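Entry for the shared binder. Reason: the reviewer on the internal report wants the predicted structure included alongside the sequence.
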Amino acid sequence: MRPLGWDNHTQYRQKKLGEMLVEASLINENQLQTALVKQQRSSKKIGEILINLGFTNEELVLNLLGKQLNAPYVKLAETEKIDNRIIGKVPENIAQNNLVLPLKMEGDTLWVAMSDPANQFLKNVLGLLTGYNIKSYIASPKELKQAISAYYSKEGRFKTGVESPQTHSYFLPLKQLGFTPRSLQLYEKYLEAQKGCILIIGPENSGKKTTVYASLKKLNFPDNDIVSVENKLDYHLDNVNQIEVSPEMDIKNTLEYVNQFNPNILAVENIQGVGAWNHLGRMAEKGNLVIGTITSDQTLADFLAGFVAERSDHYSLIEHLDLVAEQRLAKAVCPYCKGSIEISRKTAAAAGLKASGKQVTVYEGKGCKICNFTGTYGYTACYGILPITNKIKDMMMQKANISKFKKTINKEFKYELSEVLQEKLLRGQIPLEEYLLLTGQDFSRFKELKGLKLAEMYWSLFERSGSVNAYLEYRKKN
């Protein structure tokens, strides 16, 4: 990724590290070519590969980079102990997630050690947080991790009220999250266009953030400047500028600041307030891609109806809104104890299922040791996908009648959430009870289903305990 603020480092931009090392006679051309061949089969940076091959060492590489970036190399193990008041200038979560450590203050300047001094965006964020001018040293990532761990102790003496999250870098790709093949193809089409605005709405803990991370991972090419503004850093994304919104930086001020650097891809978690919406609209106006999540229990149609009522406030965003996804998280049927059950056509129809024969086959987990006798194992995301056509935009701009507007949305849906849930149910991916819950239906009103559930409960009890009495009790009641 080309770091934000790259244009401030013209010489660094024009010459690659390998070339600089050859010019400085720190490696030879054959060694560089060997490392470049190895890099084609690796995600590691060229400097790391050269060090691992034993062609150079980290200190030489960092010294050279430091000279090019006007950021002197500092060996943290040899520095004097840093005053606690200086450490406290940078919140622990910022230090840990960005590998940056405050070292000293000189008047209105705060000197920090960084693993990537070319990241001007991070320096500007630090300036906004601390109120100081930021100057940097370059330091070893390994030494930075050790020093940060040592200075920000377990007692949390230097914390600013924000607990440091346990971030990790592994998460599922888009194709494994729960998209149906056709809905994934449609979502990726809009994602790969890399312009306009994509919104993902859903309740708390419905997996929206995981979808955004997987989306950013797919777009994480070297040419892209990507910024992610988050309430909490749950994952670490390589080559993405991640900002955790803190009490000192509300989302509106953060977006105002980010807009100055014009990243070509911006992700924002839990968008709130007219000011934030307007900033997203302005980003999309520039031809950038904006991906936003909104925490809401509303249906997609009800959510967009709210935009109709507030047209004048959301004008710029509506104009560039391309796709809205409605996301829910559903418990998945345990594959180890999965079994089929037949329900009558009448019950199926009452549950909103399309039934052609006398009976409809659905699937449930019977309960086993692997799923702790729950019948479910893990979760699958379910997505309703709505491209925002010109017809929908026109109705939103003109403050159309809400009833007519919702009817239009239902006609324009490519993949309605209820249809996706039904497809997952009939394919045996989610249990019937979960389908009913997510489509807003009361399980208890279906007498046939209550009987099936009772049978499952007693059979599970028999399986767990081996008790004949449990089985006889089941027979007595059925």
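Summary line for the report: The chain has 22 helices and twelve strands.
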